[in-house]
Design a protein that fits this description.
Elements: H1 2-15, H2 25-34, E1 47-48, E2 54-56, E3 61-64, E4 74-78, E5 83-86, E6 101-104, E7 113-122, E8 133-134, E9 141-149, H3 155-158, E10 165-175, H4 183-186, E11 197-201, E12 219-223, E13 234-246, H5 247-254, E14 279-281, H6 285-288
Parallel strand pairs: 1-8, 2-14, 10-13
Antiparallel strand pairs: 3-6, 4-5, 4-11, 5-7, 6-7, 7-9, 9-10, 12-13, 12-14
Length: 306
Amino acid sequence: MFVILFSFLLVSSIVTDGHHFGYSKKNQHLWMKDHKTCAGKLQSPIALSTSQSISLPLPALEMIGYHDFLKNPLKLENNGHSVTLTPSIDSINKTISNNPYIFGGLLSPGKDYEFQALHFHWGRKNNRGSEHLLNGVRYPMEMHLIHKNTIYENMEIALNNSDGLSVIGVFFQLQEEANPRLVPILKVLPDLQWNNSQVSVNSYLTLSSLMPSNVEVFYTYKGSLTTPPCNEAVTWIIFPTAVPISLRQLNKFRHLSSGEGSLADNYRHVQGIGRRKVYVRRIDAGIMNKTKIPNLDMTNLSWYWE
């Protein structure tokens, strides 16, 4: 039971940005001093480019339980680096139970990845905030949903395996009207004004309500956590279709405090892609009209250029 509880605490600490670090250019350079992995060759985020990605009819990303309400209470926290949401732990077994999970795409065949937590990255100005770039565009906000490979007993083990985690990246784009689906999170942000503040809330929230309208197309590549200790254990899945958010809603995030000032511009600089390949799932219209999409032999696919 202690090991299970320790795993949950590790989720809250590492995956939800619990280390002490800064986002200034100087501070990000110092990440490598304290965490050698941050200088690795498989670091994230990267600049995604449609023209330089490999387009294939990859298997769909299956998202099980994404339409179900998350188990209450939900823990929301301002940890000085981001706003994080962590699902409830079972009061008896001390485990994160009955959580949504994903499989498919180019994730390890036959393996499920269980949802652990989510957090956000946003900018002080509207032309920055997201960590990944898409065709040269940096969106004002990006959400990360962290999933752990269920073959690994806890997060500590998962972080030390190349297939340990999968993180879904979701862009947010400004629109005039407010997005009502964001209300369950936005309504508690005033309670998270200060660094290290947290609140436990009962709210009807589904992960699907935070997803873009199109989840059929996505980019995927091998990378890392975008915060220290920068473990290179992540299979990234990035949706190019953005979720709408109004300026007034986005400003609610910008009004939060990091403990040293306004909590904003909490994004890592783009990292070199190196020898890595980026795949994009696209299904030809002619194939979509058929009853079955042909199976793609993924055994010969490589994540890296020779």
